[in-house]
Design goal:
This protein is mostly helical and 224 residues long. 71% of the residues lie in helices and 0% in strands. The chain has a single domain, classed as Four Helix Bundle (Hemerythrin (Met), subunit A) (Up-down Bundle). Helix 1 (19-43) packs parallel to helix 3. It is globular and about 60 Å long.
Length: 224
Amino acid sequence: MIVQEKKPQELLEDRIFTVSNFLSVSRVFLLPFFITFTKTYISSPDKTEFLLYAILTCILAVLTDYLDGFLARLLHQESVLGRYLDPICDKIVTIGGLSVIVHYFRFPIWILIAYIIREILGVWLGSFLYLKRGIQGKPNWWGKFGVGLVAITVLWYMCIPLIEFRILGKSILKHPEISGYILVLILCIGIFAYSKRYWNIVFHPEKIQIDPDDKKTRKKYELV
């Protein structure tokens, strides 16, 4: 393939102020509210309304994650910047959410560390592909599933104080850490899938034949 390097400022040459980009960024601004509501509840467990506020904030963040992509396609506002902004905001919010349940709800910290390492590698890969290869790294379904699973994990942990006294005896609902272990499995599969797709592009670009005029190729590699 022909190596076509890009400059960071080229990201800003596309549309910036769009509804979808606003929704992506709004997720990050919801994070401080989520942390504050959770901290208030932990400090005063009798104030269960703050736990509900935290849960609702988390659900709202999930909705914005769905709506930003949907509205970008519906309003024809898709852009290179938006395709990077969405996953970056996802990474900030998911790491923030997992950090909260590690700190307040005893979620296994090693899973959080593994998740952070994976996200750092993802940022490096995405940046390298864009800046050094002129390709926009395309999220796979494993990555999207992982983000959704993080949301389920956080919500599950947050809901435990509300439901545990209603559950009699042994129940899988009392073990939200299960979703964390599934998350690790999904992360491993996702890393393998990304490696399979982009290994030669990163390390052996001369072995890859990419035709910019081929629609299938453009869709697979998101040439920019």
